[in-house]
Fold this protein.
Amino acid sequence: MKKLAFYTLVIFLVISCKSKKVETVNNTANKEKLPNLVIVLSDQHSADMVGAYGNKQLITPNLDQLAADGVLLENAFSSQPVCTPFRGMLMSGMHPLKNGAFVNDVPLLPNKTKLMAEILKEKGYQTAYFGKWHLLGGNRDRGIPKELTYGFDKVLTNNCHVDFRPGKAFFWNEKGEKEFFDEWEPYAQTNQAIDYLKDIDTSKPFAIVLSLHPPHDWGKFKGVDGKMHYRYDTLEELMALYKRSEIELRPGLKDTPDRRRMYHGHMAQITGIDIALGRLINQLKVMNAEDNTLVAFTADHGDMLESHNAVLPKQYPHDYSNKIPFIIKYPNKIKAGLKAKTMLATMDILPTILGYMDVDAKVDFDGKNLSKEIINNTLNKNDYVPIWNYRIGRARNSNWRGVETERYTFSTSKETNNPMINVLFDREKDPHQLNNLYKNPEYTSIKKELKSYTNEWMQQYGDEFYGAKEFNKVQPKSKWTYNYTYTPLELLQNLKPN
């Protein structure tokens, strides 16, 4: 009996050990199944400036392939078409009045919620950021303090600059020193990301952001018409891919030699961005990581390219300013070749991406997880997305609020005689938004409905149509650019932080 009991115990221990071994293997397998994340951003890049979005003159084979392999959103909007606010919302999933980054060159407040990289680090991710940062308040020409890298392990970036030429473009290294690139900035930044992936710990998942600055303009030139126009010139080999005389300008825009030069450079830069994206995706293939990596491509806002007589390239409610490309490839969950009409706002990007990755952030985002709606090609809950621009006193930008629906673009302001920011466009009848219906009596009821949507979201976020006067009145002595404690909304409502 004693022998039997002994042998029984031995068998039990063997089985138990095997079971633990299997459990360990399964846990390891589960870890390996955690999806990687790659987000690629371009800057000032409208949705209509991508081949996959219907532009037949753009050379964007890698973007087009990404769309063919994944899902393309037809209704993705930059809620506030400005650099810093977009990036703040991308990192936080929160409204700018609550995250701090409500205009350019003010900081994203790190103490208000868990941010993208912080969320992923808790799940065991390796995190890195390359390229344009533009989340640091104050002087643009300085490195990013370690305490304001928002959870990214590796940060090789510039805060914001607009000269991308070899020898002019630069980044701040991990020692806080400025280094200059010896090649076109997007290519150099992509190489930094590729080098990072080559040395990565393959037993752990990774999440990287590659933020490329073009096709943003990088200055102005005096045209043959004697006026100043935005400069988009770039590498000769990229410019040579397009014949300037054959370029088609946007509908409704007067054709001039200066505008042809603008479009030529802008399109050439976009092709350069496409080449950079292709190189990064190729590295994923080399690593055999492509199938288990969610790749997302988008832009912070669009570029008016002087359409509608725009003085600025952005900050307008028009589609050219705020309708952005948004393409996701994730073979594990997304069927190839989908086109979705789901209305997506900037605040929705982070919760939606985390939704695909099955990451429970345990954060009460302002944005929505639209991962299921996109796959099912359905509209989001409210059937509209909020759009706005906050003015803090600069001469040429304007203060307006509005909404986008699948069919309509609407915005309103207190500058009642300004047709650039008081708009109503019927996208179904007028896809190029050439006919402003804001004062058309036949659209009175539609205008009323869209205005009620606008009031609805403004009330939700505590926005009382604040403008330059109100912001300047509550501006702390340390200036918005160095305010790391109070949110704009807290100051405006005379609240103290919790």
The CA atoms of residues 340 and 377 lie 5 Å apart.
